[in-house]
Amino acid sequence: MLDPRTLYNIDTEVFEDPASRGLPLLVSLTGFMDAGHVVSQVSEELLEILDHDPVAEFDADQLMDYRGRRPRITFAEDHLTDYQPHRLELHRLYDGLGEPFLFLTGVEPDLQWERFASAVVGLVEELEVPMTSWIHAIPMPVPHTRPIGVTLHGNRADLIDGMNAWRPTAELQASIGHVLELRLIEAGHDVVGHVIHVPHYLAEAEYPPAAVAGLEYLGATARLVLPTDRLRETGRDVERQIARQVGNSAEVQSVVASLEKRYDEYADGAARKSLLVKDNSELASAEELGAAVEAYLASPQAEEESTLLWDTEFPGTTSIDYARHGESRDEPAGRKAPEGQDDDGTPAS
What we know:
eight-stranded mixed sheet, globular, two-stranded antiparallel ribbon, alpha/beta, single chain
């Protein structure tokens, strides 16, 4: 392996500042399972609202497949402008109470995962990071009228125990976040991962309530006060819009009621904490769990629920395609906003 330290350049003044030592690290990388655009919203909110200083920048030319995930550029009448190259950066931010923390954000690397992971482990050790927290989001068969759920994982049992209603075993497609978690734990560092549960029929749209939940969970884990006011206000507008559209269709109301009934049955039952726990209260095996998830997402019921709700709430857009969702690439500038919303996810005036 080539020297991981040559993957990034540091801002010497900030990096060597004693105030940059011993800070918690948050990681928010786009490119893998970003249902509801939670990860991108979290990154944008933190960088736009909180004061921040550059600590290090990774060399995107060594890590990105440009032809597989092309950067954006603007053609303005007779010239090119506003080239947006891929970035992968480490910042020092300050939360709502002025407490500093580190934030690794940008696009998930396409290449050299092990070298990148080694570089991050090296930075964690050199900056004496006490704990790393990272986030992604997945579509789940849950209603938008219930609290946003989360699954926590990692090696901090004191933070994880009591938060997860179920502890499945399943084979997944890996992300760089998973690799970072493994390598950090192997090196003896504390890590907590957050999987935010997003209603499956809203997974392709920006869903601010899920981003609020993500910020709250990250803040609680790292003991930080992270900004949520702007996303809460946008989320209230989106929820009012959804409520109006659902209220106009008895058929959609029936679908939502069905999701609510299933959610409440599993949430309230002491013996059945999970949508995938068997009737005898035993946890499903890896094969049963994977089969159950795939069977639901491929079932006419899931397709009908997703299509009906999506077509009613966001007419003129394409509902979630589960077959490709796990393989999605970042195309924030090219996605189409739902009807009635601007590109930033807020309702159009």
